[in-house]
Amino acid sequence: MTEVDDERAEITDRHLRVLEALLFAASEPLEPASLMPYLGEGADVSALLLQLQARYAGRGVNLVQRGNGWAFRTAEDLGFLLRRQEQETRPLSRPALETLAIIAYHQPTTRAEIEEVRGVATGKGTIDLLMEAGWIRMRGRRRTPGRPVTYGTTEAFLDHFGLETLSDLPGLEELKGSGLLSGRLPPSMQIPLPFDGALREDEDPLDPDDHDDDRDRDDDGEDDDA
């Protein structure tokens, strides 16, 4: 190797160590743009992340992508070792699970659209619970009368459920195989493809006065979890 090659290898190793330290210390996935300032101009963060990911492949800890972010996570086949250390948490209620599933597969979706799929009213408390968990967010407002809020999932949702992108959500056959759907469903039934991106043409940006305590203009119904 030439001196130039040695210098490039040294710079690459230093960059990988910096990325390793930042990702190890982070409490949530980090996006490449947030890592760039620590590496300096000209560094190819995406290529470096893939190189670091390759280094950790097959180890007890893997570097994984969650949406646009990257994070170290326990290897999937070793996750059972840590389950004993998990704290007891209150499981989501059935209405919350149904609401989360509808948002995940039908996003962007409004509260009225969630209620249409579920066939029952969806209380503000259910939406609040999922937002407090960090799994859903307000995306924008639908360009329809009343301009209802549209909801979508977050990168924290992807991280919690071990998904790299929304396209990794279980498909029809996987849901049948897991017993979550009946095997006697109509042949014409399809699993909707969630929209994963910026605002759609039928969405407006959130209003400046939108905040956590005013999630929707029609959120004054009874909570179905009560």
Give a verbal description of the structure.
With 226 residues, the protein is α+β, with helices and mostly antiparallel strands. It has two domains: 9-80, Winged helix-like DNA-binding domain superfamily/Winged helix DNA-binding domain (Arc Repressor Mutant, subunit A), CATH 1.10.10.10; 94-204, Winged helix-like DNA-binding domain superfamily/Winged helix DNA-binding domain (Arc Repressor Mutant, subunit A, Orthogonal Bundle). It contains eight helices and six strands, in the order αααββαβααββααβ. The strands form two sheets. Strands 3-5-4-6 form a four-stranded antiparallel sheet. Strands 1-2 form a two-stranded antiparallel ribbon. Residues 212-224 have low confidence and may be disordered.
Summary?
With 226 residues, the protein is of the alpha+beta class. It is built from eight helices and six strands.
